[in-house]
Specification:
The protein is mainly α. Helix content is 72%, strand content 0%.
Length: 265
């Protein structure tokens, strides 16, 4: 032992052996000497000793000092620990907000699991509040926030508000899966035909309305002939009103044509 004073594997083994012998104080000392693995070993040690307050404290330190994967694992254990042993400090919204706000980049998994926990507990108001507060902090996770808000509002029976949020978040470049989730939501709630009729009527009323045109194109995105017809009507209407195309608009329309197999157009 004296030849390898900082060897984590040896220290961990010594701790295991001394714990089996009932020398718990000595086992704890060995674990605390292990670096950098000591936090996770300590948490497990206190769990075996049924010292849940100490275990929770160590898990909180893991959350503060680890990467996303280890933090997510520690967070899951801590959630269950707090629930099973009524550790009030770790069941407050303030605690979770602190963890999430500390490192937005690494805390996404923590946030996601917390939202899942709140949904299981039917604490929808807090779940929606957490989602709203953190929506802009995680680029690339827009789909998670959207689906979470929509599912929570739907479970509350507030389908109209869920549809309003879904429609406001419309993105012509949604993946096929995301697109089908949107239309599936409308169909499930018997709103697809109403939405389809509204979009078609808006386009018929003003074919130069680019937003109406894009939503119509999205509805018909797999039909090359219909997509081409829509684009021609938009071109004609905009030309008549002397509306110039922006680069973003041209790119959007071009992408629909390409995806529909009308690349030449």
């Amino acid at each position: 032992m004296e030849r390898y004073p900082g060897d984590a594997e040896i220290l961990a083994k010594l701790s295991e052996l001394t714990e089996r012998l009932g020398r718990f104080d000595k086992a704890e000392q060995f674990i605390k000497a292990v670096k950098p693995e000591n936090l996770r070993l300590l948490a497990a040690f206190y769990g075996r000793r049924a010292n849940y307050e100490k275990q929770a404290e160590i898990l909180e330190r893991v959350l503060e000092n680890s990467g996303p994967e280890a933090s997510a694992e520690a967070f899951t254990v801590l959630i269950n620990l707090a629930k099973n042993h009524d550790l009030k400090k770790y069941r407050t919204a303030e605690f979770y907000r602190k963890i999430i706000s500390r490192d937005p980049g690494g805390a996404f998994t923590v946030l996601r699991r917390y939202v899942e926990k709140l949904k299981e507990e039917k604490n929808f108001a807090e779940a929606l509040r957490i989602l709203t507060e953190n929506k802009g902090k995680f680029p690339g996770a827009e789909s998670f926030f959207l689906q979470s808000e929509v599912s929570i509002l739907s479970e509350q029976g507030n389908v109209r508000e869920a549809e309003k949020i879904y429609r406001a978040a419309f993105n012509p470049f949604w993946t096929e899966e995301e697109s089908e989730e949107f239309y599936g939501f409308l169909r499930f709630n018997d709103r697809f035909r109403a939405y389809e009729s509204e979009i078609k009527n808006a386009f018929k009323k003003n074919p130069a309305d680019f937003q109406a045109a894009v939503r119509f194109l999205h509805l018909e995105r797999d039909d090359a002939e219909t997509v081409e017809k829509i684009v021609r009507r938009v071109e004609t209407a905009r030309a008549a009103q002397k509306i110039k195309w922006s680069a973003e608009e041209l790119l959007t329309v071009s992408q629909f044509l390409i995806n529909a197999g009308a690349g030449d157009t």
